[in-house]
Specification:
By secondary structure, the protein is α/β, with parallel strands linked by helices. Helix content is 42%, strand content 21%. The chain has a 6-stranded parallel sheet, sandwiched between helices. The protein has a 3-stranded antiparallel sheet with strand order 7-10-11, covered by helices on one side. Helix 6 packs across helix 7 (199-210).
Length: 307
């Protein structure tokens, strides 16, 4: 791919840009931010690490969108970050205005791009981007489930003292406190988690995964997580650029899947060269389906609050 753009040169955006460059997913990665000098300085600093780390992707910083023209993928991280006591929904109005402006510029300068949305509240910001750009759902995808699943897998690995590589899991639903980690689809090297942990410990890990973002905000106090969110977006981008057809939980616009439509919700997605190539519908227990319905309702109420 010739060019990937990252909108926002804060912690998430800068970490994402370097991750994309390290994997050489494009000939050029452009980092855009309204703060003069910040994207230029960070991009130059990152490219100066290339001779040491051994990759050739060029990093460019910009304050406008002219340099982003023709991007194949645009990762959107722009917006204000959470602070202690704030929910993702508290960010709603401010970030919606930012994402509208970003989306207009993406549609103007990169009309064939695939958008990976990170800005919070994520499911609603993806909805805004799709609405503003007029792009088909295949080209507007939200990064949520990969991150939430990674947190869940991390906590299981810590609990069992095993490698994270052996843990397979799936987290569906909205990106927030109503997310739905599926214990019935969680295995450790193929062994069901229910055979390795009592239900009360599984429930505790599920609860910690739901509050994983707030836990980090509580520690940092002046910002939110960025290493894992950036890594999740890079994994999604890699599946698209390399046409890997990976099955990853992402926020996708539903058109009847799981009995829902007209909203973004975390579901298992196949990502390939065309972006979202398939939504997989898995069987859910009654409790999991009820939890997914509850999560969808929370997303709908946030969309309604946006007006």
């Amino acid at each position: 791919m010739d060019r990937i753009t990252v909108v926002g040169a804060g912690n998430v955006g800068a970490t994402c840009a370097q991750g994309l460059a390290r994997r050489e997913l494009a000939r050029e990665v452009v980092m855009v931010d309204i703060a003069e000098g910040i994207p230029q300085g960070k991009a130059l600093d990152q490219f100066e690490s290339a001779p040491i780390e051994g990759w050739d992707t060029r990093l460019v910083g910009a304050n406008g969108y002219e340099e982003t023209a023709g991007s194949g993928i645009v990762v959107v991280t722009a917006g204000i970050a959470r602070k202690p006591g704030m929910s993702r929904d508290d960010l709603l109005k401010t970030n919606a205005g930012i994402v509208r402006d970003v989306s207009e510029n993406i549609a103007k300068h990169s009309p064939d791009a695939i958008i990976i949305m990170i800005s919070n509240p994520l499911d609603v910001m993806a909805y805004v981007a799709k609405d503003v750009t007029g792009f088909p759902r295949e080209r507007v995808i939200g990064m949520a489930g990969v991150l939430d699943t990674a947190r869940y897998r991390s906590f299981i690995a810590m609990e069992l003292d095993v490698s994270v590589e052996d843990i397979q899991a799936l987290v569906l639903g909205g990106h927030g406190d109503t997310m739905v980690p599926l214990a019935s689809y969680t295995t450790v090297s193929g062994i069901p988690l229910t055979q390795l942990l009592p239900q009360e410990r599984i429930d505790a890990l599920v609860d910690r995964a739901r509050k994983g973002g707030a836990e980090i905000v509580g520690y940092l106090k002046t910002g939110s997580a960025y290493y894992a969110p950036a890594a999740a977006a890079v994994q999604m981008a890699e599946s698209i650029v390399r046409d890997k057809k990976r099955i990853l939980p992402c926020a996708a616009y539903l058109e009847g899947e799981y009995g829902m439509k007209d909203l973004y919700l975390g579901v298992p997605c196949k990502l390939g060269r065309n972006g979202l190539e398939q939504i997989l519908e898995v069987e859910l227990t009654d409790d999991e389906r009820a939890a997914l319905e509850n999560s969808a309702e929370a997303v709908r109420s946030t969309i309604a609050a946006l007006g």
